[in-house]
Amino acid sequence: MSFFKKLFNRDTSKDKEAKKQEVHLSLDDAFVHHFIEKGGKFLYCVSEKEVASNLGQIFTENAWDKVTCTESSVKEYLKGFKVKVSTDFQKDTPFFTTCEHLISDNGDILFSSNQLSTHKIASLTDDFIVFARTSQLVRNTGQGLTGIKSNCKEHIPTNISAVKNYTLKKDDDNFLNYGNSNSKNLYLLLLEDF
């Protein structure tokens, strides 16, 4: 390090070039980076037993004694917990669900009518617990929509939307989102399945 750099603490042109270099992350690393940056709570699981354990810790941490769950595929994880399970959406009850895809480029979580029925995300509870698998990671929203189309050939779902922010009551300066806040306090249980 040169004397002048120490004295004035200025970046040299080499330091500036190093900071400009683009970093390429894998799908999962990029998703986790963006997801956490937006305020999401991320729990990585290597087994289904770990999913159940983390789910129990979420219920304990938040003192939740009831949950809304409409999908039989994830209701199995709720067995053994002292929580009342409802299939009716309620504004004050956390929602435990799956999702369609995890969008790596921006950390969004893509949902459809398969999870939300006819409800808009903004009209649902503020507290979401989402169960997903690493195979649901896609690069961008376009790949997510293509994935939905190829996975649901007989009956393409409607009401496709995404949770884009995981910090409640955050101001959004984007005028296109005015009056349509879909910010959620969201926990993601991501199960390794590759």
What are the salient characteristics of this protein?
4-stranded mixed beta sheet, single chain, 4-stranded parallel beta sheet, alpha/beta, 30% helix
The first-to-last residue Cα distance is 45 Å
Radius of gyration: 20 Å
In sequence order, what are the helices and strands, one letter per element? HHHEHEHEEEEHEEHEE
Number of domains: 1
Organism: Pseudotenacibaculum haliotis
Protein name: Lactate utilization protein B/C
InterPro entries: NagB/RpiA_transferase-like
Can you give a write-up of this model?
InterPro entries: NagB/RpiA_transferase-like (IPR037171). This is Lactate utilization protein B/C. It comes from Pseudotenacibaculum haliotis. The protein is an alpha/beta fold and 194 residues long. The chain has helices at 3-8, 13-20, 27-37, 48-62, 72-75, 113-116, 141-151; strands at 41-45, 66-68, 84-86, 95-97, 101-103, 108-111, 127-133, 137-138, 161-163, 185-191. Strands 1-10-7-4 form a 4-stranded parallel beta sheet, sandwiched between helices. Helix 5 links the parallel strand 2 and strand 3. The longest helix is centred in the first third of the chain and has 15 residues, at 48-62. Mean pLDDT is 86; it is low at 175-180.
